[in-house]
Amino acid sequence: MKESTNSTASMSAFNRRDFLKGIIASGLALYIPLSSEATAEEQQSVKLYGGDAMPGGVKDDPRIFLTISESGEIVILCPRAEMGQGIRTSWAMVIADELGADINRVTVLQAPGDETKYGNQNTDGSRSMRHHFQALRKIGASARTMLVEEAASRWKTDSTKIRVESHKLHHQDIEKSFEFGELAKAASLRKLPSQSSLVFRSSKDFKYVGQARIGLVDNNDITTGVAKYGIDAIVDEMVFAVVARPPVFGGSVESYDASDALKIAGVLKVVPIPPSSIPSGFQPLGGVAVVAETTYAAIKGREALKIKWNDGVNGNYDSIEYRKNLERLSLKPGKVVRDDGNVDEEFERSDRKLSASYYLPHLAHAPMEPPTATARFKKGKCEVWCSVQAPEAVRTDISKRFGLSLDDVIVHTLLLGGGFGRKSKPDFASEAAIISHALQGRAVKLTFTREDDIQNGFYHTVSVERLEATLDDKGKVTAWLHRTLAPSITSIFTKDPKHEAAFELGQGAVDMPFAIPNVRVENPEAQAHTRIGWFRSVSNIPHAFAIQSFVAELAHEAGKDPKDYLLELVGPDRIAFADKWNEMWNYGENPKLYPLETSRLRGVVERAAKEASWGKPLPPRHGLGIAVHRSFLSYAAIVVHVQVSDKGEVNIPRVDVAFDCGPVINPDRVRSQLEGAVIQGISLATLGEITFKNGRVEQSNFHNYELTRMHVSPREIHTHLIEQSSYDKPLGGVGEPGLPPVAPALVNAIFAATGKRIRSLPIKTDDLKVT
Predict the structure, then answer these.
(1) pTM score of the predicted model
(2) What DSSP string describes 233-286?
(3) How is residue 718 annotated by DSSP?
(4) I want to staple 120 with a disulfide (CB 3.0 to 4.6 A). Which of 57, 205, 339, 507 is the partner?
(5) In the structure, what pLDDT confidence band is assigned to residue 62 with cuts at 50, 70 and 90?
């Protein structure tokens, strides 16, 4: 596969017309989409077929994404953002296999932001491949069919006698072949094949899909330092900016004095940014921007600002007191969101009960590259360069804010140095545009410092999870009560509902699949006092932590092995909630295509346990812990092996991950995502915590919002993918499902090693010391 770049040398506008000109200049003149404004050059191109949209607004029209040149070179446009998950590479793999192309002659370019043209471009929800796989196969099969028909016409033979492989079309009866480029121009003039006529390759003929060690299209650029991230954008006559934002969500500038800031060498201007109201949506927080000749000068100018803040309604937010309030509310009944059997009756008559409460704090995304964006107004248009997960959100906000049409807002999506959901919010790009507009359109690069990122984010929700259960004389659970309390993401869009939304509750709480006759899930009120935003795996994190930790506690109470007890709760193989899915949330997917299959839960548990040699003898203060969770339509089980020193230090010799996401497109990237989930999960469980005092975030940088370092990371991470025999089955998500079971598996292992229960994160070393 050819290495690609995601920006032009001058960072100039990468729009449709410029892309076309570049294609023609390099001989790539085929398979370009037509429009009502098509030029004579464009009219020489070809339409493939206009297929139906895939789920989530994904388009499967290959006119938009694929070109083949007369020299045989192939260019693919990828509309989903690349942030390490390898989506651009996976796109190339699927199209190359279905087309019969040599992947080394495929180049992948990043599509600009344009949802009308490219379909949904939000890179979130672990859906970039599951929503595109069939569409990509159609693209490749359509192009292959047209090439085959052209070859058959020239050879005056039946198309069934033609084999397509490695960029060539071969006649099975005579020793003749065509290169793609020899046929491309003529093939482009042929009638498009109907979707019903398309014949897809058998998976046994795949050379790339499902195969490990397919190098990333960005490998060379990334490893040699030439890849373009958001911070790398360079525009002519660009200036630099940072913003002093309200330290409390909902606060505003009461007054400011910029005289000292303007005395700093290099400082050019101070620009006020209006505050956002609550609910704020994705709007900037407001504040005061300092514009300078360098980012350093802008930071020094910001330090010299004299600002008097009005803290607003959240000035008294204290996370310690808030936790106490949630814990009090968790002891009282709340809004019932699932009610099976008769929980109250079972609790009244049972003599054997167990209860526990679990706490998870706010978390910050803290991607390695903090948010940054460059914006410029020119000739009535706004152009933005940024690392963003949702380019359409940027376009929409800027177009509304400045009265522009969507076509007049051009967004160049650059490589993301991490995202985890933070960069799906367009506030930082909007700030850059606001400052550029105030400077009569001059290009402005806005940069978040690490402190800005951690103290002005959209935080993963704080949560208290209360679990209660009754057991019979054999230790079997007969009733289950779960109260989940967490401020909702929807509080940033509407008047605070004080209850979790259906999509949040449907991430492991109401869809808890255990074979228990009496189940009730309640959702007491929890008010939001800061910006809540989606974070990798979202509400699956607290729900999985509480439920899988509680399962291990129930196993101990019943005197049973935790793995065996977990499988007992999973119960017989069945489709869970088969008669209820119409009332439940299923990641936006059809439950007939994506049912909750307990056989797959069982499968990953048994595989992880087997690979970790579950039950093996271990030295003192060593232990194994297990957890399983279904999220984003995939199934993940994790076994963690820990060794806890007498000083309370947790060492992790090995982690085993069993994963079932259905068909696997790029095994290497799936394994990479799971390994990353393990590292991040350990980091969140042992170090991650955002706290508030007087409405302000108390953490500011990696000295007090720590991340897992290499020396405390697992020495070995083993990933075990459950093989699928057919690529006709729906794909599950990959980016997020590996994270939720990490923390509960870790704390369950710590209990096995030390006998000490961890119910509050992050884990405190002092709690594990030998006294």
Answers:
(1) 0.92
(2) ---TT-EEEEEE--SSTT-EEEEEE-HHHHTSTTEEEEEEEPPPPSS-TT----
(3) E
(4) 57
(5) low
